[in-house]
Amino acid sequence: MAQTQRPDAVTPVFLLTGFLGSGKTSLIRRLMESPHLTDTALVINEFGEVGLDQLFVQSAVENTLLLENGCVCCSIRGDLVDTITDLFARAANGEIPAFSRVIVETTGLADPQPIIAALQTIRSSRPVVLGKVIVTVDGVLGAQQLGSADEAVAQVVQADVCLVTKAELSNPNAINALVGELHALNPNAAVEVLRAGSFDPDLLLAPSGSRLAAPSTYRLAPRRVRGSQVVRHRSVESWSEEIEEPIMWSRFRDWLDLLYSLRASHLLRMKAVLNLVGHRIPHAIHGVGPLVGALEPFGDWGDDTATSRIVVITKGMDAEIIRQSFRALVLPGRAQSERSADHGGVGSS
Ligand SMILES: Nc1nc2c(ncn2[C@@H]2O[C@H](COP(=O)(O)OP(=O)(O)OP(=O)(O)O)[C@@H](O)[C@H]2O)c(=O)[nH]1
């Protein structure tokens, strides 16, 4: 069905946030099943250098843009403003399909408040309003994350809607307790438990008004200054890698087993799309906190070169350890040749 431009010419920007692995990308995939929501531009922000989320949603959303290698709430706010401004310009020129709403999927560590402030500086042909701040909360790990991560609390207290995900993996009492905690943290937010069949994407993305600035009831204090960038996410590091040569699943699995048996408490998030030896189609695997899901076939490579992409986000742990262990256990041939090159190489200037 052809989409028509909204006559009011106001474009709502929805912020979709929620702690690492709480289900933001999965929610987008569900949202995009609604035929009424296809005229949506999607901006995805990822913490690591290698973005994966666009792979998970790209078939669903035509206007998808990726902002990687930084968190949009601190280091790359200007990029977000430029990206959205540019989206409007390109739609006006007919370079991309017209859209009547924008969804910004933030990193799992983002603080909504500075992002909302940045949205106010967008200069576009059509006025931009804040649609809603939608926050996914992990039904299994949410209570623990709220107890241990300032970022998770900051997201909830600034939410218009909190959506509890993964309810089917938890028990009803724990879900009820989590819902109670969310109400207590933010009495103004609607709190909903996502259940199959009870989800109305159109209702979720109906703008609730034109709030231009979120109440700054809770702000993450800037923690550290690195170069000229304010970095709010203390002790968080990421390692990511893209590899064209096929990976042996047994090696990858052994590496994950070792990593999680030794350092699970430092691992915030792991996600990978893998080009595995003996398989023509990509496979995906997710780790959220200490929990690792099953390896699952995932779509196809389409026109893309089969390339594994892996991201690991750590807290209080040098991400270099991840790189080294990955090289040693998953790509031993490459690690060996890198060592040989180091030893036999000409000294650098
Ligand atoms: N069973 C179940 N699994 C879910 C649900 N939502 C997300 N997941 C799983 O949780 C993992 C992480 O989901 P994502 O949607 O990638 O989470 P995210 O918030 O986008 O992750 P980041 O962008 O890395 O912060 C994946 O394995 C999903 O399949 C849910 O409602 N139920």
Automatic annotation (TrEMBL):
It holds the Pfam family cobW. Coiled coil: none annotated. It catalyses: GTP + H2O = GDP + phosphate + H(+). Residues 236-330 form the CobW C-terminal domain. Keywords: Chaperone, Hydrolase, Nucleotide-binding. Belongs to the SIMIBI class G3E GTPase family. ZNG1 subfamily. Zinc chaperone that directly transfers zinc cofactor to target proteins, thereby activating them. Zinc is transferred from the CXCC motif in the GTPase domain to the zinc binding site in target proteins in a process requiring GTP hydrolysis. This is GTP-binding protein. It comes from Terrihabitans rhizophilus.
